[in-house]
């Protein structure tokens, strides 16, 4: 039941190109304004000898920069009333500020943001202040096998470029320092996007002018390495009771014509429970339940990047059952891909996908990410109506055709935990 | 015979301290005081360049260097800064590694010479012009940060 709010049409994004960066702005119904600097400096652009430098840069963003010391920066940011966040993905590093639609506070916070992004100092005596939170991140990661299995899946699928993790390997900590970080920034902080959500037009002009003062005219730099999908098996054996496994084939890149059919297929495989304490929907849970008596969890995976993607499923099971669970899930996926889905399944999956889209654009930050993805890949700006209509247009034939093509693709498997019964991917399919 | 050889060898290695006019025979490699770090200027050069006041080369300053012991063992004025003061301690923490290493070498050399009751040859003594005020920028920075923190805290 969609409330009236969600069906209003959105303003189309206005894109202004400047020398070194692109300004994209959208409006949404959210009460929060977000301004994001989306820099193409994600994990995939790190060289082999500087793996993890993005993690260091994210954690060092709040340290002393050319304009202010860390202390003054923190206090000034607090005074503006905006919240600040640095996020890193495989493709981007995103510096963002959120505010409650107060234009002055956004402008003040943006000035701080520019200094943090483009004039960092990475002083030698501040290194510990950046490395300690990184150690905490890695420590938390030892308990998050679900994140680790996804990182391992990407590593198995791509090895370099998209396979590089957003978390720094512990052995590289001693390498991180001022020179490496500044070199990385020089190389990659070009041709970025300034994404404004729910800001006024003249504020956007001012923000763009402020940004021009901090960056010189766009050095196009070397074109990025294309992500090559390789496939294979990688397992990380850890003492414990459970196995976390993920299986995927190469999926759709952002904007490819397979993207929407695969989104629908993702929801045919598995739909999250709509209410607490209800069972999930989709083919995987029932298929696995037939094969195994004990508890398990499963999920769908659909990652879209600018030139590649991953599509598949993930499972969590007891160590003894993991092999059976994976075989049942793989058999179900194979059967879905070869025999296709029925029209009711497709209709239900489309409804679920539409709901996901609506929920995602409610959050100004994830909406801004969507906007950036579109802008970077030269797609027309996302509007809610357009997205819902595009999902409606997906036909059953398209879905089944795409599913059939998945059978020919080389699969990848990654497993973390007690992997004694996890089969290799060649034995699985 | 063997004892004589040993004694002469020892005598060669450890010359007794002499008054002015001795040859530079110090065992420790002669660290030129202006290097190895780049960019740091001596007090004389700084005053010439206008970055430091003329008063830094005044008579009073000169007397300190002429009548003190520390130049004779190769120390600079900033080497005397000890970490009791929190500002100085923070500035010491911020020294770049090569500056810090050179400081430690000079201090070790001075301690050794002091234990042996020796001084460096006069050509190697620190002078007012050859002294390098390497702590100044860091002490300034730390002082500024402390003031800033006080200013912010007074607003609370």
TrEMBL record, chain A:
A single Gene Ontology MF term assigned here is: metal ion binding
Q: Which residues form the Peptidase M16 N-terminal domain?
A: 23-169
* Entry-linked SUPFAM superfamilies: LuxS/MPP-like metallohydrolase (SSF63411)
Q: Which domain of life is it from?
A: Eukaryota
- Which Pfam families does the annotation name? Peptidase_M16, Peptidase_M16_C
What positions does the domain Peptidase M16 C-terminal occupy?
196-353
InterPro entries named in the record: Metalloenz_LuxS/M16, MPP/UQCRC_Complex, Pept_M16_N, Peptidase_M16_C
Q: Which GO terms describe its cellular component?
A: mitochondrion
User: This protein is called what?
Assistant: Cytochrome b-c1 complex subunit 2, mitochondrial
From TrEMBL, chain B:
Organism name:
Lingula anatina (Brachiopod)
Q: What taxonomic classification does the UniProt entry list for its organism?
A: Eukaryota, Metazoa, Spiralia, Lophotrochozoa, Brachiopoda
Q: What is this protein called?
A: Cytochrome b-c1 complex subunit 7
Protein's UniProt keywords contain Membrane: yes
UniProt GO BP? mitochondrial electron transport, ubiquinol to cytochrome c
Quick check: keyword Mitochondrion in the entry?
A: yes
- What InterPro entries does the annotation carry? QCR7, QCR7_sf
In the UniProt record, what gene is named as encoding this protein?
LOC106173752
Q: How does it sit in the membrane?
A: Peripheral membrane protein
Q: Which Pfam families does the entry mention?
A: UCR_14kD
The record's Gene Ontology cellular component field reads: mitochondrial inner membrane; respiratory chain complex III
Its assembly, as annotated, is: Component of the ubiquinol-cytochrome c oxidoreductase (cytochrome b-c1 complex, complex III, CIII), a multisubunit enzyme composed of 3 respiratory subunits cytochrome b, cytochrome c1 and Rieske protein, 2 core protein subunits, and additional low-molecular weight protein subunits. The complex exists as an obligatory dimer and forms supercomplexes (SCs) in the inner mitochondrial membrane with cytochrome c oxidase (complex IV, CIV).
Primary residence = mitochondrion
Q: Where in the cell is it found?
A: Mitochondrion inner membrane
What's in the keyword line of the UniProt record?
A: Electron transport, Membrane, Mitochondrion, Mitochondrion inner membrane, Respiratory chain, Transport
